[in-house]
Amino acid sequence: MTKDWDARTRMVHAGTRRSQYGEVSEAIFLTQGFVYETAEQAEARFVALGEDEFIYARYGNPTVRMFEDRIAAIEGAEDAFATASGMAAVNGALTALLQSGDHVVAARALFGSCLYILQDVLGRYGVEVTLVDGTDLEQWRAAIRPDTKAVFFESVSNPTLEVIDIAAVAGLAHAVGALVIVDNVFATPVFSRALEQGADVVIYSTTKHIDGQGRCLGGVVLGSKEFIRGTLEPYLKHSGGALSPFNAWVMLKGLETLDLRVRAQAQSAQALAEALQGHPKLDRVIYPGLDSHPQHALAQAQMGSGGTMLAIEVAGGQAAAFRFLNALELFTISNNLGDAKSLVTHPATTTHQRLPEDQKQHLGISPGLVRVSLGLEAIGDLLADVTAALDVI
Question: What is the pTM for the complete model shown?
């Protein structure tokens, strides 16, 4: 029935389970274990779980399952597994799939923790990783081999907002039987069509837009039932990266307003980016919704929006960027994103601090780069705050 609903309706209603009390708001089942009427029932449940049957919260929980079912319905996925954080989702999806001797091709423009999982953790255990410039299809074509097991990339990169052609990369990967794993956090479930465009597995840090109010950590992996229950679940339920029931409830509440929030944030991002173009204190404004963005046409075709994030490069390097950040009054300095509050951070010294200088330069993470996450404040107030802070430089 839910497949006939609009996405905004699914965000409110999909996956709802009600107890015998008929509650309106989803119940929080704060329990780590479940009881059985007989020893025979316990034995049967450990052999095979029936519908709405649970045995331990690390394996599954009614509140968590509501969240998994709801976001799967939104994304158009067969199934989902919720995790303790976005990085637990990334680690789980990659580690559950790969083993020594496997080959992975990944975009070079990745969040620092993702690079750590690929290069330090998986590399330590014999997984070969080839990094490419994600927007260059020829590099993908050259790097993907007949024995490539998976490709991995952020559909919109953090923090320089490169847009990867999901359909094109998926075509190259599927030609050799490789799985396509996409970190889709900047696209959000509101603008995502990643599965339709060829992704096999989609990952979100639900800490970001899905919670949307800076309260809880969480993550989710979406894909086919075969991958989620056959490949991913055995690894995650034994390694312990489960989402807590309370956090799952917070994420359910976040989904109810996700469409409204994200569309409003994207409108503000577009307006701010347009207003800042050509500002004398800025070397560049990076936003996929601008005609000046190298992948503007792809962003419109792939997402239909420029999204909620933009980046600006302050003329004068780190010192000027810090003066700008410290002069802001309404924007909050924080390395989170997707919040109801507008946030700014300096990637070179925070989220991507770990990268060697040559990699930062190659990725465009300059000393003057500032990442901006638009919140729900009035755009006039946000623009006034930014322009006043730029005047201080």
Answer: 0.95
